[in-house]
Amino acid sequence: MVSRVIPVDPFDLVIFGGTGDLARRKILPALFRRYLSGQIPQDARIVGVARGDLGRGGFQGMVREAVCDFGQGAADKAALEAFLNAVHYVQIDATGLRGWSDLAEILQGDRVHAFYFSVAPSLFGPLAERIHTHGLAGPNVRIVVEKPFGHDLASARALNATLAEHFDESQIYRIDHYLGKETVQNLMAVRFGNMLFEPLWNSQYVDHIQITVAETVGVGGRGSYYERAGAMRDMMQNHLMQLLCLIAMEPPAKFDPDAVRDEKLKVIRALDPVKPHHIVRGQYEAVTGQESEFPGYREAVGNPRSSTESYVALKAHISNWRWAGTPFYLRTGKRLVARSSVINVMFKETPHSIFGEEAGRHTNVLSIRLQPNEGITLHVTIKEPGPGGMRLLDVPLDMSFAEALGPDGRHPADAYERLIMDVIRGNQTLFMRGDEVEAAWGWTDPVIAGWKARGEVPKPYASGSTGPGDADQLMRRDGRGWRGINP
Ligand code: BG6
């Protein structure tokens, strides 16, 4: 099974913040991989924009390095040189006037012009305004904005209002890179492409759902951003919220951007406020051992009194007909025991066991692994083989997508490849609409305000563990337990 590549029409992609970290690590390597696959036409143009006086040659050198370090550049030198021919550079100060006419000169024709704002959110407004005043905001223009989209509801509203002054909502692509992950989209395929699960997908049959996004990395060099964000803003408000929406939403009538986003929005609006005792914050501590040595969170951010959480676990309730009574347990954290993002749909026990108490009680679990080792496992109950009575056993029906697709069936490994191509094609399904982002902040803000009002500090947890013990307690109180965090 080989993934099909459908070339997009010629386009110009302008990357503001073209020399920044995200451009080098993600955007440029993703573009090169799509170029290698034949999806990007020869006459497409990629225009890096930054404040520095790099010149075209300097920027091309930087792109070469980026795709060699983070992409497959080293593997195909000829293709890399051809790709670099499509790369241009313009020196612009986002808040000044210089350079805009140079950009206008490069961008010609009535092709799609995509402006990627890979810059601080404070520059979104000035950039949008200048694109407009320099006559670059035609109907074929799309703008792409990165997270964080605001810091709270008020700032997200202000950003939406600023962008709306110059662009229609249909031109705005708000990135949540989790939506570009292969398995995240597979969630929709599994739910709505099969008859098997949907009839059981409700509180009558599902006991609870667990969503875990565990990372082994710490905050690294992003301390100053992370100190102001914490896991609640950095991961829960966006990535985990999107997963929750896709797992809980009603079937949209069509797989079209607004139909899907309408259904996701309804989920967020049906979320109950989180009760203070249904949420646990944690902060990782240092590891000092013979084999590994990692700084704790406070050392990493250089703030010995930091009360920012690097871990959060919570119980959410969705008040609608489908889900009333089925809790959703969500957790995410840094420096945990393994990198593992998985959704576990935990079905209820059978109403009655015909095999008697000694056979034990068993439940079905549908595990959707987002990363690594993407795939789906359905845990079913069977008879333990052999003579000697009826003993029951849980066995996994396992499907690994890598195996199913076969050695040649590469699917785009990086979410950015898919998302950027969707921008060019004008498909907003995998991008967050303004009202969705605002609703997500509306649910997040009171949680954060509550911590502040109560003066709560995060619970310490050991690096390399599964998080603070209180998170286990959160489940245990309900007679449940987290499934393991396995790589
Ligand atoms: C980013 C967060 O949005 O997602 C990071 O800002 C986090 O803190 C990252 O590490 C996780 O993404 P992925 O694709 O590695 O799971």
Number of helices: 14
How much is the radius of gyration in Å?
24 Å
Structural class: alpha/beta
Please identify, by name, the CATH architecture of the largest domain: 2-Layer Sandwich
The total of beta strands comes to: 17
Low-confidence stretches: none
**Percent range for β-strand residues:** 15-25%
Mean pLDDT: 92
Q: How much helix is in the residues?
A: 25-40%
**N-C termini distance:** 26 Å
| Tally of domains | 2
Global outline: globular
The CATH superfamily name of the largest domain is Dihydrodipicolinate Reductase, domain 2
Multimerization state = single chain
Bound compounds, each kind once, are: 6-O-phosphono-beta-D-glucopyranose
Task: Describe the protein.
The chain has 487 residues and is an alpha/beta fold. The protein folds into 2 domains: 11-146, NAD(P)-binding Rossmann-like Domain (Rossmann fold, 3-Layer(aba) Sandwich), CATH 3.40.50.720; 179-476, 2-Layer Sandwich (Dihydrodipicolinate Reductase, domain 2). Helices cover 35% and strands 21% of the residues. The chain has 14 helices and 17 strands. It has helices spanning 21-36, 55-70, 77-85, 100-106, 124-133, 153-166, 182-192, 223-248, 257-269, 297-301, 401-405, 415-425, 434-454, 469-476; strands spanning 11-16, 45-50, 87-91, 112-117, 141-145, 172-174, 206-214, 279-285, 287-288, 293-294, 311-316, 328-333, 340-347, 365-371, 375-383, 392-400, 459-462. It has a 9-stranded mixed β-sheet with strand order 16-15-14-13-7-12-11-8-17, sandwiched between helices. The protein has a 6-stranded parallel β-sheet with strand order 3-2-1-4-5-6. The protein has a two-stranded antiparallel sheet with strand order 9-10. β15 (375-383) and β16 form a beta hairpin. α5 packs parallel to α6 (153-166), α8 packs across α13 and α9 (257-269) runs parallel beside α13 (434-454). The longest helix has 26 residues, at 223-248. It is globular and about 80 Å long. The model has no long low-confidence stretch (mean pLDDT 92). It binds 6-O-phosphono-beta-D-glucopyranose (BG6). Residues 147, 215, 234 line the site of 6-O-phosphono-beta-D-glucopyranose.
